[in-house]
Fold Sulfatase-like hydrolase/transferase.
Amino acid sequence: MAKSMREKFVLRCLWGSKHACRPVKQVGALGAKTLLVCTALITFGAGITEAKTPNVIMIMSDDQGWGDVGFNGNKDVKTPNLDDMAASGAKFDRFYAASPLCSPTRGSCLTGRYPFRFGILAAHTGGMRVGEVTIAEALKKKGYATGFFGKWHIGWVKPEEVSSRGYYSPPSHHGYDEYFATTSAVPTWDPGVTPEGWTKWGATEGEAWKGGFPYVQNGKEVKENISGDDSRVIMDRVIPFIEANQDEAFFATIWFHTPHEPVVAGVAYKKMYSQHGKTKQNYYGCITAMDDQIGRLRKRLRELGLEKDTIIFFCSDNGPADTMTKKGVASAGPFKGHKHQMYEGGVLVPACVEWPGKIRPNSQTSVRCATIDFFPTIAELAGFSFPSKDKRPIDGIDLMPVIEGKVKQREKDLFFGYRRLVKGIDGKSIIHGDFKLMKEAKANGRVRLYDLSKDPYEKNDLAKKMPEKVKELGKRLIEIEKSCQLSRDGADYKY
């Protein structure tokens, strides 16, 4: 065992499991004699098994479609590091975001709960409630160092921000010791500068982007090292966090802005796609730039000897933006729809996981998994459980039995939602077994039914042919919504 670990822990010895892995600063009550014996046992390797929990890294891209990675068959975009990560671990063929847009999905990653439970139903409509228990808070209780890096978008990160919607609720309010974050989207190249040709929301060409300094690090606005590739800017803060905490368990959440608009790539990355038009050069270029930073992260973990002690998850937050799919640039693969839609293309995302020595290389699963599954999976790996008096619903499942091939079909229903009632939008869907019932995410949207086992691309609406199945799934959907309403109205929170 490494010296640093001997210094940090008194392992299971004379006192049995009751005192396993107590920090040295807490052993005064055990007595110096016990500590001496434990240290001797550790030094001479007297058959004591160290109770290890893995480091955890959770990576998410932004608006990256199911078909926007090499490991899902894209022959144009270069994602060698993500492809290698998928080949070295497990690839999820059917991995779902909890919502067809970012903020609700982000909250689901941290809580293991449907967005309709924690009350973030669309972008810019709220912030994460402190009553929610995040995976960062859970892991802090287990002694993890916790860090957040990138796009937060579930609350403002600057206390002085004034906006018509949302409120101040930074990562530090939700279990993160350290953070380097923006409130929402920034250009994927030079994040403080409005890119050439930009005419949409946020700012106009020639102006600073959101004041020019969108990043906040541990409560302070950042003004250094925020130019160039945004994914590199983020990773420049991730690597030092890992290096500083390499001798203890750590949890790093890395949420890239790529390839969300404004989509911009550096000159070198655009040259890699010179055979394509300008829009595709920027889109593919920024994805490859992000992929390079994921490769940089994996390389550093290996240099530090941490790769076998670290599990890395990757996924996107929703399907590709319609502005990019309409131009033939972004791809949902063969699936119907895009961001903001309840069809598969809006919620199916690229996803993989790597844990050398623990997850068999070239593993693959077609079991339906989702962002709500991160919390229960990571909590189980870290040995966290809620107190018996905390009865809050957790909607996800443990992914490890799925990854290991022990689970062949998901037993729990999947529920997705996206709501802006002011615009008449109330999209939602439920997957029960192989059947998917969905209400289109638009005013007066139609209710549709699909058998995903026979029709994964949603070409044949069965709603009129199978009214009893519509009724059955509709009833299940109502029950889930009622449960979510109770949670949203405070049933799971203490006052």
User: Anything to note?
Assistant: Confidence is low (pLDDT under 50) at residues 1-50.
